């Protein structure tokens, strides 16, 4: 990989550019530096956070041969080179293995190890995120965020320069305001070096989601809160603080900062407008004043490796010192100027909404078999032909609907059991009636994309984008390539996840 410029050099260059007359925008970490609170960690898969940073942003690993590649910005200070990822990951799967620290301190984020809680990998590590689950554009240029399903987590337990004890720090993150859940804990920030709960005040991290086990804000969430360990705080006191507003922005800026007996939560629409302050005041009692910060960094998990949460991270940084509101406001302006926008979640042939389709298996064993539900609501592959019974034809025909959990993708409604859809449950596919819950809608949402093996299309799970619709022993799953379950077996993976989309049988 290219070595990053030293942060000081990067900032001096950027400050020089600003001084010339603000013709060249400074990055978020240039702004923090000029505010006297330099970044000590800077993470983004979408863009450089320093105007002069031209080094690696993140590393991907592909399924076909296990090789890795660093992805950098298109130019110094620029948007990530998504085309380099697309070409490296063409016709295979790709995971994000490393999110590099741009600050020069080497505070890279990698697969989180087991802690108080174990990850789903056989060695107890958390899963890595798909490299393709969160496509966006910045100023019209495509980039990928880090789409984290439950069980996914990154950390650095030997970070350098992150606040410890009661020392002051700040942090911000740009997140997907529509991708969250109520499990613990989608965090970014300062945590325990042991991945274990070592007591109140041993963390100070941005939390995003609608967990109500500790604190909450007004409305039904999601909220930006602060994970201080053994508590998600939305304000001065434990529990509900109505000053912490529910977030309804697609792209959200979350900012948190703390210093002796003072902390704040601020938030904004990352695509327009300015930061609002949801709380600014003294520390809660009960072990949080003074703080006992440990200085590790987590992403997508709690400090004890609680890994039930989901969320999407685009960029974020942590600072030394307590940033002023003015500095954070300038960072927010820079984020708005980056123009985060959604883009297509699908690729390959489009599946017209309302059309009736069939999905034929392509693995050599099974090319006369189609995705079918049986009469006990298991999704299987069955031999179906024009001479099959009308019952079987109905069971093998799917009506394409706008994705119940994300309208950028699709859901598959049963032709013969209207109101029932293909969903995954414990990663097995079942036919189930839409109960209207957020969990159902998300589990029933799939994003078609161009095939992995060249034949047909693949169908990605929206909420587990490392997982594709697969047949294994004639039963349907959402499977990852080489994951921990039997049905994740690498063997004929590419063929098993590739389907020929044809007309429905009825
Ligand atoms: C449906 O398929 C599952 C998995 O093969 C099987 O266990 C179950 O018995 C099948 N149900 C019927 C009614 O055939």
From TrEMBL:
Disulfide bonds join 29-39, 89-94, 184-185, 409-447. The keyword Hydrolase applies. Its EC number is 3.2.1.55. It is found in: Secreted. Residues 28-341 form the Alpha-L-arabinofuranosidase B catalytic domain. It catalyses: Hydrolysis of terminal non-reducing alpha-L-arabinofuranoside residues in alpha-L-arabinosides. One of its GO terms (molecular function) is alpha-L-arabinofuranosidase activity. Keywords: Carbohydrate metabolism, Disulfide bond, Glycoprotein, Glycosidase, Hydrolase, Polysaccharide degradation, Secreted, Signal, Xylan degradation. It is an enzyme of class 3 (hydrolase). It holds the Pfam family ArabFuran-catal. InterPro entries: A-L-arabinofuranosidase_B_cat, ABFB, AbfB_ABD, AbfB_ABD_sf, ConA-like_dom_sf. One of its GO terms (biological process) is pectin catabolic process. Residues 359-501 form the Alpha-L-arabinofuranosidase B arabinose-binding domain. The active site is at residues 229, 304. Pathway: Glycan metabolism; L-arabinan degradation. Residues 1-26 form the signal peptide. It comes from the Eukaryota. GO terms for cellular component: extracellular region. Belongs to the glycosyl hydrolase 54 family. This is Alpha-L-arabinofuranosidase. The lineage of its organism: Eukaryota, Fungi, Dikarya, Ascomycota, Pezizomycotina.
């Amino acid at each position: 990989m290219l070595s990053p410029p030293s942060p000081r050099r990067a900032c001096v260059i950027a400050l020089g550019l600003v001084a010339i007359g603000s013709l060249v925008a400074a990055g978020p970490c240039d702004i923090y530096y000029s505010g006297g609170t330099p970044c000590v960690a800077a993470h983004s898969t979408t863009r450089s956070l320093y105007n002069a940073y031209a080094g690696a942003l993140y590393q991907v690993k592909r399924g076909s041969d296990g090789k890795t590649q660093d992805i950098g910005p298109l130019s110094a200070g620029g948007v990530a080179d998504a085309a380099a990822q697309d070409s490296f990951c063409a016709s295979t799967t790709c995971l994000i293995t490393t999110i590099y620290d741009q600050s020069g301190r080497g505070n890279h984020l990698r697969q989180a190890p087991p802690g108080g809680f174990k990850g789903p990998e056989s060695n107890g590590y958390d899963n890595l995120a798909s490299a393709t689950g969160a496509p966006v554009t910045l100023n019209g240029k495509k980039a990928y965020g880090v789409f984290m399903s439950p069980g996914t987590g990154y950390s650095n337990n030997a970070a350098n320069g992150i606040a410890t004890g009661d020392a002051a720090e700040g942090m911000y993150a740009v997140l997907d305001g529509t991708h969250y859940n109520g499990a613990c804990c989608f965090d970014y920030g300062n945590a325990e070096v042991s991945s274990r709960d070592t007591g109140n005040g041993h963390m100070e991290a941005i939390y995003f989601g609608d967990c109500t086990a500790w604190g909450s804000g007004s409305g039904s969430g999601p909220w930006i809160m602060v994970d201080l360990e053994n508590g998600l705080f939305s304000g001065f006191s434990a529990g509900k603080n109505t000053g912490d507003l529910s977030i309804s922005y697609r792209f959200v800026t979350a900012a948190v900062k703390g210093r002796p007996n003072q902390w704040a939560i601020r938030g904004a629409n990352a695509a327009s407008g300015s930061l609002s302050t949801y709380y600014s005041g003294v520390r809660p009692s009960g072990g949080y004043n003074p703080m006992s910060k440990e200085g590790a960094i987590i992403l997508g998990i709690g400090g004890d490796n609680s890994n039930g949460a989901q969320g999407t991270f685009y960029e974020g940084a942590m600072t030394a010192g307590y940033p002023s509101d003015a500095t954070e406001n300038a960072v927010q302006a820079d984020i708005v100027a980056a123009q985060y926008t959604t883009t297509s979640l699908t690729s390959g042939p489009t599946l017209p909404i309302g059309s009736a389709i069939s999905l034929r298996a392509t693995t050599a064993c099974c090319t006369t078999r189609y995705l079918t539900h049986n009469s006990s609501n298991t999704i299987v592959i069955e031999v179906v032909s024009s001479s099959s019974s009308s019952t079987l034809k109905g069971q093998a025909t799917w009506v394409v609907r706008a994705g119940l959990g994300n309208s950028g993708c699709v859901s598959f409604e049963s032709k013969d059991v209207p109101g029932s859809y293909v969903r995954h449950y414990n990663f097995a596919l079942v036919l189930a009636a839409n109960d209207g819950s957020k969990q159902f809608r998300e589990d029933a949402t799939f994003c078609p994309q161009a095939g992995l093996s060249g034949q047909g299309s693949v169908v990605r799970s929206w909420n587990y984008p490392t997982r594709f619709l697969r047949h294994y022993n004639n039963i349907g799953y959402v499977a990852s390539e080489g994951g921990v379950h039997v049905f994740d077996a690498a063997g004929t993976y590419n063929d098993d996840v590739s389907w020929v989309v044809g007309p429905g049988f009825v």
